[in-house]
């Protein structure tokens, strides 16, 4: 069991997808894209790696939603064999230090200096690495880019040393413990963030109202999905729908195409938008929308 932790936007989900070899965790430039613990599985030879991608630890706001996200992080880091603390290569911020402070003693921590491809001058990295090494007893420090397949492959060899010998938890070809219904909601949410950019507050979410499988002589397998995008204000609703409904149409179309690839079947997807003001501050509603 390997936890992937770090502050928001350091590339944790991109790293998880690269390690698993398939996209199972959504990504966008928006901070706080990941909101749940997502387990990714990769079996290499005799070793099974079970990765838990966590939400970025929130230090700034204390809404009911953020408390739930932080709880998901804290619940994950206690019961793993090794922790990957992901930071941006060349930067170690007070928010990174705060996440480091949460980690429990006794569990080895591998510091991953990610986004190496964005570092202008590699020569400047050496003094930074020395500086970072002095901050804690890291088991290893790994400068890498999640976009570089050789770097990703190297990580397996590094992590393997810290894993116990025991039977595998999952089948050899399993990639995640999350259901298709969960992945459908996440895929719609990713497209929502991608097409609204920074205009839309991160407190928008997606609820799957219907996920029904139907036999289909024409397609073999067919799934009907109804999803609701939940926003906090009427202005946000108009923004998501876009002029003449174009933006909402595009969100639905791209999500459907990606889900057809992911689930290898025909997908019919309907997407609606509803306003629920203040939901991110309402504990009962946060829970009802599927957060821990």
TrEMBL record:
SUPFAM superfamilies: P-loop containing nucleoside triphosphate hydrolases, Prokaryotic type KH domain (KH-domain type II). Residues 1-165 form the Era-type G domain. InterPro entries: G_ERA_dom, GTP-bd, GTPase_Era-like, KH_dom-like_a/b, KH_dom_type_2, KH_sf_prok-type, P-loop_NTPase, Small_GTP-bd. PANTHER family: GTPASE ERA (PTHR42698), GTPASE ERA, MITOCHONDRIAL (PTHR42698:SF1). It is found in: Cytoplasm; Cell membrane. GTP binds at residues 6-13, 53-57, 114-117. Keywords: Cell membrane, Cytoplasm, GTP-binding, Membrane, Nucleotide-binding, Ribosome biogenesis, RNA-binding, rRNA-binding. It is a peripheral membrane protein. This is GTPase Era. The keyword Cell membrane applies. An essential GTPase that binds both GDP and GTP, with rapid nucleotide exchange. Plays a role in 16S rRNA processing and 30S ribosomal subunit biogenesis and possibly also in cell cycle regulation and energy metabolism. Residues 224-277 form the KH type-2 domain. Residues 144-146 are annotated as: G5. It comes from Ramlibacter aquaticus. CDD domains: Era, KH-II_Era.
């Amino acid at each position: 069991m390997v936890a992937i932790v770090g502050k928001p936007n350091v590339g944790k989900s991109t790293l998880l997808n690269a390690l698993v070899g398939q996209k199972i965790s959504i990504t966008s430039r928006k901070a706080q894209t990941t909101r749940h613990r997502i387990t990714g599985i990769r079996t290499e030879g005799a070793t099974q790696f079970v990765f838990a991608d966590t939400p970025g630890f929130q230090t700034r706001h204390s809404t009911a939603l953020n408390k739930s996200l932080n709880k998901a992080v804290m619940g994950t880091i206690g019961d793993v064999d090794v922790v990957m603390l992901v930071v941006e290569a060349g930067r170690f911020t007070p928010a990174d230090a705060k996440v480091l402070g949460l980690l429990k003693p006794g569990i080895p921590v591998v510091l991953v200096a990610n986004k190496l491809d964005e570092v202008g001058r590699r020569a400047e990295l050496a003094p930074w690495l020395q500086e970072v090494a002095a901050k804690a007893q890291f088991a290893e420090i790994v400068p890498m880019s999640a976009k570089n397949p050789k770097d990703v492959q190297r990580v397996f060899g590094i992590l393997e040393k810290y894993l116990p010998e025991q039977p595998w938890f999952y089948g050899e070809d399993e990639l995640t413990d999350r259901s298709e219904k969960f992945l459908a909601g996440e895929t719609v949410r990713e497209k929502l963030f991608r097409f609204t950019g920074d205009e839309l507050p991160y407190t928008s979410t997606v609820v799957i109202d219907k996920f029904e499988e139907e036999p289909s002589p024409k397609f073999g397998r067919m799934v009907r999905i109804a999803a609701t995008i939940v926003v906090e204000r009427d202005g946000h609703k108009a923004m998501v729908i876009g002029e003449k409904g174009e933006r909402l149409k595009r969100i639905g179309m791209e999500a459907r195409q990606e889900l057809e690839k992911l689930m290898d079947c025909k997908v019919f997807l309907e997407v609606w938008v509803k306003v629920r003001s203040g939901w991110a501050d309402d504990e009962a509603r946060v829970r009802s929308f599927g957060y821990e």
